Amino acid sequence: MFLSFFLISSFSFSLGQASLPLVVNTWPFKSAATSAWSVLRSGGSVLDAVEKGCARCEVEQCDGSVGFGGSPDESGETTLDALIMNGNTMEVGAVADLRRIKNAIGVARAVMERTEHTMLVGEAASVFAENMGFVAEDLTTNKSLNIFSLWLKGNCQPNYRKNVSPDASKSCGPYRPQAVQTQTRGPRHVGIHSHDTIGMIALDQNGHIAAGTSTNGLNHKVPGRVGDSPIIGAGAYADGSVGAAAATGDGDIMMRFLPSYLAVELMRAGADPSAACKSAISRIKRHYSDFFGAVICANITGHYGAACNKAPSLTQFHFMVSNPESATPILKSVDCF
Ligand SMILES: *[C@@H]1O[C@H](CO)[C@@H](O)[C@H](O)[C@H]1NC(C)=O
Ligand SMILES: *[C@@H]1O[C@H](CO)[C@@H](O)[C@H](O)[C@H]1NC(C)=O
After folding, report:
1. Which of 89, 176, 226, 263 has the fewest C-beta atoms lying within 10 Å of its C-beta?
2. Site: Cleavage. Where (predicted)?
3. Residues lining ligand 2, CB < 6 A?
4. To 10 degrees, what angle do helices 122-131 and 104-114 make?
5. 122 C-alpha to center of ligand 1: Å?
């Protein structure tokens, strides 16, 4: 009893050590952390850190779930979503369902800095990106083609449609509507390898704070589907007087609860970062007890934390922390609850 109490308290203390500057990012995406950290170490801005960090994952196709060549939709196309937020000015740039452009976080930043808008979507977002000088190229790779053709061969399973006929569990459509059943909770196929969005928070010693995300969404999604990542307050949120948060996981579920916004508001009300993350997860858990997801949180004094929901595919969540306590980014983990 005493021992377990001791372990738990020392664990949460180590999660909360404060020192600035700070970068926290989801998953063991180490080179993303290193890229962001080297921007901050060399005196760069928190926005540059978040952009470079997420862009690193877009280039490296982190876990196949960020950047080109991953998560083909029902038509075989890869589309990208990204968000960047300046917590000091409350400016945001976001893109969703972006096609043919690899650097989604770069386009999100261009939306923030080169337009009066906040979010651009779909084909028009791609045209905007091309006009801003981003290179248009095919996001399909042999790997994404292979994921797509295996799915076709397997009768389009897994499948995200419901309340349609004929037998949606076997067919690739076309789909006809069926009577809508309330309370249907069909099996969801969202797990650690189908949705590992990078979410990142960066803070410096001068009180600057930024957050961002980048993802290619969900394998086999219905074309047009946008998850939580580019949605402000869902995928990420930052407020220079409080802190920031970012989320990863089953975006279709998580975006209904604005977990990043909620976590920031809880920190505003005095919650420490670990507790704020935990409460944001609990709010979702109340309705979807086995959803797949995690949230990272940091406050402006450099304390940080994370929480995840215990699910069949997730018992422990890994994330990266970069601060002056260590020369290189450190892999941290938190047990899901
Ligand atoms: C992709 O597949 C094609 C045809 O099978 C092959 O010619 C090409 O070398 C492959 N590309 C890569 C990058 O593996
Ligand atoms: C950040 O969280 C730590 C740990 O709970 C707390 O001691 C500190 O006061 C918080 N900072 C702010 C600015 O709220």
Report:
1. 176
2. 196-197
3. 16, 272-273, 299-301, 303
4. 80
5. 28
